[in-house]
Amino acid sequence: MKTSEIRQKFLDFFASKGHQIVASSSLVPGNDPTLLFTNAGMNQFKDVFLGFDKRPYTRATTSQKCVRAGGKHNDLENVGYTARHHTFFEMLGNFSFGDYFKRDAILFAWEFLTSPQWLGLPKEKLMVTVYATDDEAFDIWNQEVGVPAEKIVRIGDNKGAAYASDNFWTMGDTGPCGPCTEIFYDHGEHIWGGPPGSPDEDGDRFIEIWNNVFMQFNRDETGTLHPLPKPSVDTGMGLERVSAVLQGVHANYEIDLFQALLKAAAREVSVPFSQDVPSLKVIADHIRACAFLIADGVLPSNDGRGYVLRRIIRRAIRHGYKLGQKGLFFHKLVADLAAEMGGAYPELRERQAVIEDALKQEEIKFAETLDKGMALLEAALAKGEKELDGKTAFQLYDTFGFPLDLTADICRERELTIDQAGFDAAMEAQRAQSRAASTFKMSGNVDYSGDDTCFNGYDLVSVDARVLALYKGH
Ligand code: ATP
Ligand code: MG
Ligand code: MG
Ligand code: MG
User: Ligand 1 test: best mutation among 91, 112, 184, most atoms within 8 Å of CB?
Assistant: First the structure.
């Protein structure tokens, strides 16, 4: 079953159960300063769960664009290393706003996964987790659905403080949250890893495909949980993960959609196609996040969302460089992505030229310093230390436009770390210096802290102009 068919089947199934099909919201969350990017299907319904917003429906289903590259849910460092994490992915979800609760949510999920009419997955390959004290969910799985007790794992308090565990889902530090039950697929003994709750659960044999959250609380800034007006349901299933299961492959990168992107990446980087080259996986992953973010109005910049985008683009460019591609290539993948996903997300086609242009500009900009920066880094690494010194990391950041995580990514490939304290100290020293410089320039009664000038090398140009403008005014 193709990825696009699975997406449609999911929506059809929940529509047949009285759910309204709602379009994905933007990756830039509207009116939610607590959130960097949309990281789950429930984000666009946050106020409905909290009781502040009312919709003409009490059941909804979506296929939601998500990015997890910052904030509470950050999978950037996992990309290329695990079989199951992307920066951008699609989350299929069904939602109940004070309508059905645990029982129906579990029964729907099981029917969709196992009924031959829908996905028809073999029941014996599935296992589930419930929140440690959630006897109700345990009993529904065990007695009504018929999952044997040994395939239901209680997770919660054993992982430290209650409510901090994996089976208590939270969107961020604040907001709607609640206990959850997760469904895992067993990819087989030949793959390393143990069942959830076991010491080697981080392996990729058992892959979490679907999380069903029983939304019951709102967490405030102090961490206090307040009951929601009505118990609700929020679920999320990773489309790429369930595609892998249905297509009989283990890693998300082996599904139809990613095969096309990996081939395109190999073509543009001029290396033979392979699905086992981490850098190709990173590029295939990152083109989705970057293109979708730009389509939703984010542009590379030096702070906030724009800086996260800049970091992802530069990581992708560096991985191309690592494979030997010193020219511009990344923006050429947009057409391939639009061909794969433009049907479901027309904004990719509508804004293709804008996306290509923004990526190309960023490639041109980074090309000016990448080569020199790499030479500096190689020279530092050639010293054979276990740790990259903070001064070099800062120079790369400040002068050559290497975000710290990009440098860390390169170091990690060589099993090295970065002297973070040294980096911070170099950053602070530069801040102090430019504070002094800008106070000097101001000399009059304008109080300008000059903090912005320190963010990185590129800012200096524009901020200097601002300082100059202020100064002229006096
Ligand atoms: P994991 O433990 O594997 O990191 P999670 O528990 O953080 O996943 P949830 O927040 O429960 O994930 O999100 C719901 C579903 O979205 C997951 O069950 C999974 O199928 C999918 N998902 C989560 N993160 C990613 C990701 N980075 N890339 C692809 N799919 C993801
Ligand atoms: Mg996760
Ligand atoms: Mg999990
Ligand atoms: Mg989960």
Answer: 91
